Amino acid sequence: MLKQVKELSERFGIDPGVFKRLGFMLRQETVFIADRKVMEFDQVKPIRRGIRFCRVFPHSVKPTTWAMQILGKHATRNCIDVTKEQAVELINGKQLKLNAAAENGFVIIRCSGHVVGVGHYKSPILKSQIPKYRPVE
Amino acid sequence: MAQYLQDFPEEFVERYSRLIPDFADFLKVTGTASRKTIRVNTLKATKQEVVDWLGDLGPEALPWWDLAFGIRDVEGIGKRLGHFLGLFYIQDAASMIPPLVLDPKPEETVLDLAAAPGSKTTQISAMMQNTGLLIANDSSSRRVRGLVGNVDRAGCLNVAVCRMDGNRIGRLLENSCDRVLVDAPCTCEGTIRKSHQVLNRWSVSAIQRFSRLQNGLIVSGFRALRPGGLMVYSTCTIAPEENEGVVTYLLSKFPNAFVLPIELPGFVMRPALDTWKGESFPEPVRHCRRILPQDNDTEGFFLALIRKGDAEAG
Ligand SMILES: C[S@@+](CC[C@H](N)C(=O)[O-])C[C@H]1O[C@@H](n2cnc3c(N)ncnc32)[C@H](O)[C@@H]1O
What we know:
Radius of gyration of chain B: 19 Å
Largest sheet of chain A: 5 strands, mixed
Shape of chain A: globular
Shape of chain B: globular
Distance between the termini of chain B: 48 Å
Order of helices and strands of chain A: HEEHEEEHEHEEEE
CATH topology of the largest domain in chain A: Nuclear Transport Factor 2, Chain: A
Helix content of chain A: 10-25%
Oligomer: heterodimer
CATH class of one domain in chain B: Alpha Beta
Strand order of the largest sheet of chain A: 6-8-9-10-7
Number of helices of chain A: 4
Bound molecules: S-adenosylmethionine
Structural class of chain A: alpha+beta
Number of strands of chain A: 10
Radius of gyration of chain A: 15 Å
CATH superfamily of one domain in chain B: Vaccinia Virus protein VP39
Strand content of chain A: 35-45%
Largest interface: A-B, 35 and 42 residues
Number of helices of chain B: 13
Structural class of chain B: alpha/beta
Helix content of chain B: 25-40%
Order of helices and strands of chain B: HHHEHEEHEHEHEHEHEHHEHEEEEEHE
Number of domains of chain A: 2
């Protein structure tokens, strides 16, 4: 497993077994994640394999919203639960002030049992890291 | 009928009033939007969760697939939180049928030869339970961007996105795919309900141009199939030259191409044509199916299910 993937799986308490059948690829500071068969495929050169897992910065690794929406359901720590109204605010780029049982740094934002995306928590401010999307109402 | 006729090119009416026995019903329905439908994205949500999220839109289960729901048409469904979370995908019911007929299985290798923007790719990915290899190809850079976005949002981990001419990909993947979808570029006559603009671009010469492109793509898709593999050829158009004619072309080139019957209980489909403008199509082409907008309150579609036999034995 790539060290960036190990780091994030530890931060979010994701059982490494979740990644058993998946492969990873680091390209231009971005880690991609896909089924192993997708990673091994070489008859044609794809422009994209699976989805972006994280971005690698000099001092941090930032998980992506889309990857966490599919894999974040296995997270057991550093998750913050919000209401639907709060989720909408975060998606639309606002920040929230709240006290959460999470360490400072990247967190997974959840709502009604679903992962909304990634945020950055520096107690008590939760900033959205969710990509710009059409406005959500 | 006259009130609808004025929107249609004369030649269009002349062609399709012969082909569609209940042409008046066809015209009438094209003046209205098709029923709004969604598909549950099982990679992210259960059926019950989606029903709960869309409760105020009165989701109604459709009889032919337990993951398809009709909903009340309201402004801004694409702006809903549940949509952002990728729990469901807004998709016309007819467009869900080609993947259902293809019936991809987990762990398989599947090619979606003309995939953008990915309605069917994301459906196939979910049907494969996010495992195996789904090669989603399209030749248009602009449309591939939309495809990648939908793959991200739906959470597809089993997709490799390629951008190349579909005519080339068959030789590169020769005999290697368990299933292939060729959801071909076409004149889109079946989508008139969505936008009457297709009529502005409509012409018989466009039909002929697309039909030549489709001949190449169906052959390429067939090459990519392994012996024993299955291919669905589909279009959202009515023109026989782009449908029965293209399947006939494939059969003329490959004696090991076999057209199979298609069934989807609860969904009305009509048999393919046996003749058009003096040309008779081979008997097996009758197994193909036409979806007309007035039958299920959808867009129009055409479907062929083809099996690749061994080169010698068939
Ligand atoms: C009917 S649309 C596909 C819709 C798609 N299957 C879906 O369900 O979202 C046809 C697609 O064929 C693509 N196309 C046109 N010519 C092509 C070619 N030569 N090779 C591959 N794709 C092509 C177009 O860019 C277009 O996206």
